[in-house]
Amino acid sequence: MSQFAINLLFVGASFALYIGIAIWARAGSTSEFYAAGRGVHPVTNGMATAADWMSAASFISMAGLIAFTGYDNSSFLMGWTGGYVLLALLLAPYLRKFGKFTVSEFIGDRFYSQTARIVAVVCLIVASTTYVIGQMTGVGVAFGRFLEVSNTAGLLIGACVVFAYAVFGGMKGVTYTQVAQYCVLITAYTIPAIFISLQLTGTPIPALGLFGEHAASGEPLLAKLDAIVTELGFAEYTAHHADTFNMVLFTLSLMIGTAGLPHVIMRFFTVPKVSDARWSAGWTLVFIALLYLTAPAVGAMARLNISELMWPNGGIDGGAVTVQQIENDAEYDWMATWQKTGLLDWEDKNGDGQIQYYNDKNADLQAIAAEKGWEGNELTKFNRDILVLANPEIANLPSWVIGLVAAGGLAAALSTAAGLLLAISSAVSHDLIKGAINPNISEKSELLSARVAMAVAIAVATWLGLNPPGFAAQTVALAFGLAAASIFPALMMGIFSTKINNTGAVAGMLAGLTVTLIYIFLHKGWLFIPGTNSFTDADPLLGTVKSTSFGAIGAAVNFAVAYVVASMTKETPDEIKALVESVRVPRGAGAAQDH
Amino acid sequence: MSDNSSNAAYWSANVRIILISLVIWALVSFGFGILLRPMLAGISVGGTDLGFWFAQQGSILVFLALIFFYAWKMNKLDAEHGVDEE
């Protein structure tokens, strides 16, 4: 059977499973559509939340970004897990006690203001839509490769699949489907990692292999990797090169953003009790950590494998890989298959029949190149987003593993895209239309408007996904910045301070969202349209602060503005203070109330 | 619901636990993982130093421990103050 047929088989079988579950658990009422009737066990909920959370950014993109940068991209690892500590300690139990269905309902009630609720809806639509753009980037890479079509065609096919899939089920369908997706994606991520760890270090646990010994040389794996990449003129893998201030801000933005993303927070509305909400956050992180502890090993080992494949005879002195080897050897088949997607390319610039891969911006290597007659780096294109998907092929693993990874990557992208679309659609239909425009809307029309909102969101995200503002994980990082600057501060102040009133919260959210959005658009182009930017992340407006790191500053602006405005305007009424007091204690958390 | 003074004591105990947990949270990630890494450079772990380990693995393990500790501690505190769910 050909690799193409095997990929289709794995992807097809996993899809059949998800769709089967979605039909079996199809949402009957609006309450089930949003929150699955609150009958979900913390461990089940944790697993589903983990699938919801780990998207194309975590699965497809993150290890690639770590592989090509090393230590400096540790921010993704700390940021995307550290946010769960904030979520578990500062938000989840209280929002569950409050007992409504959506994040904006909490903001609307706590700040006794329809305006606050609508502003919250706008904030979460902006953050979620940006997030979906990142997912579509990943979906495009995955479908492009496995259907052996161009990246653009892959993206369009993927958009249709995501839409069909999200429209069928509500939260309940999604919850059980996501448990299945978690199982598929974690198996798909860890199995190749285990194989590769065994090949390189003899250790079956990749997280231990990363700090273990490279079997072929007897040196520590990371020392071996540092030696190879520096020989090729690249920055030392384990060393700290990034600007420290920006790295701290970026990590903090990802953490705060994690605790401000509506589709993740919503999951904690679906557990039966307040105490379960606390446990559920822990279980979610357990399931996430299984992937996040593996990812840095995947990145480091892939970097080592690629470097050795490009210099198969023991470094620069042994000579580079030849064009003939790339075209004929089975070990290099992955290069030809990925070249078709347009995301990988090479060119024999000096016509010596070899492909030299090195850092042609490094002065030492330029000297060596001049001496040996090289004319620049000949591995001309290596999109970071292909690394995880190509990894099993790079390591020459059996073809069923490659098919499994295809299914896993799509599971990650689909589960998150579906969860986000659900958050967007419930914000529009439940908060905007039912809550603000027409409170007497029938259940049927509410569900219809939810589906129309999904269709619009996915169309916008697909269109912008054709020219994404960055690799999947970078686009997703922008979404986190927006969530960090708008939603998280409002929720936290709503619980931990009775002083913040309606005008304070609205002013804070608007200020945080606006400054962050402007900062991002100044660097990434207005509405992410290429060419309309005034600055670049290489030379940002404020010191060393990149657009992906601005969320933490936006959050600080939000807190400060809310506090100042609240202290100048009318005090919070007593019944709202009583509401805050009651949210703080678990007793009396009944079933959720719809209004 | 129990009286207000008991609720206030419950809340301040909760805030104290949160603050201690967040200090640890910041120490392992921003501290050991980034800012204090040079200080940990002398402690070597598998071909690199302890700061690298904290940035790529250690902090995640500590985060996990923190969340489970908080859930356990708070569920106990709920019962002590009589504010747990029946």
From TrEMBL, chain A:
Give the molecular function GO annotations.
transmembrane transporter activity
User: What does the record say about its membrane topology?
Assistant: Multi-pass membrane protein
Top-rank taxon of the source lineage equals Bacteria
The Gene Ontology CC terms held by the record are:
plasma membrane
**Family annotation (Pfam families):** SSF (PF00474)
Keywords for the protein's UniProt record, in alphabetical order: Membrane, Transmembrane, Transmembrane helix, Transport
Give the transmembrane ranges.
Answer: 6-25, 77-95, 116-134, 146-167, 179-200, 247-269, 281-302, 400-428, 448-466, 472-493, 505-529, 549-566
For this protein, the record's PROSITE patterns field holds: NA_SOLUT_SYMP_3
Q: Which compartments is it annotated to reside in?
A: Membrane
Where is this protein chiefly located? membrane
Q: Which family does it belong to?
A: Belongs to the sodium:solute symporter (SSF) (TC 2.A.21) family.
Q: What is this protein called?
A: Acetate transporter ActP
Name the species this protein comes from: Shimia marina
TrEMBL record, chain B:
Q: Does the keyword Transmembrane helix apply?
A: yes
Where is the chain membrane-spanning?
Answer: 17-40, 52-72
Source organism per entry reads: Shimia marina
**Record domain Sodium symporter small subunit: where:** 8-84
List the coiled-coil residues: none
What keywords tag this UniProt record? Membrane, Transmembrane, Transmembrane helix
Q: Does the keyword Membrane apply?
A: yes
So which domain of life are we looking at? Bacteria
One Pfam family of this protein, by short name? DUF4212
The entry's protein name is Putative solute:sodium symporter small subunit
